[in-house]
Amino acid sequence: MTVCGFGVGTSLLLKMTVDSILEEEGINGEVEAIDMTSACGNSADLILTSKEIGEEIEGQVSGKLVYISNFMDKEEVKEKILKAIRN
């Protein structure tokens, strides 16, 4: 799950990046872009978001929070996703 304030801009961009990384790595996964309010009460294996939003939804979502600093940096996203999957 990718989460941003409204679920249409940043989270959609991050979803497309994650989809691309999963395909490149041969990992099956379903990624949903969602807004912060809708994320609360939901669960996912991984929840990718900014640190600021993550701190607001922590405890209200079920899954491993992964903080992304630069949503445009595919290498950062890839490194953090793969690390989270392996741990």
From TrEMBL:
It holds the Pfam family PTS_IIB. One of its GO terms (molecular function) is protein-N(PI)-phosphohistidine-sugar phosphotransferase activity. InterPro entries: PTS_EIIB-like_sf, PTS_EIIB_2, PTS_EIIB_2/3. One of its GO terms (biological process) is phosphoenolpyruvate-dependent sugar phosphotransferase system. Keywords: Sugar transport, Transferase, Transport. Residues 1-87 form the PTS EIIB type-2 domain. SUPFAM superfamilies: PTS system IIB component-like (SSF52794). Its EC number is 2.7.1.-. This is PTS sugar transporter subunit IIB. It comes from Clostridium perfringens.
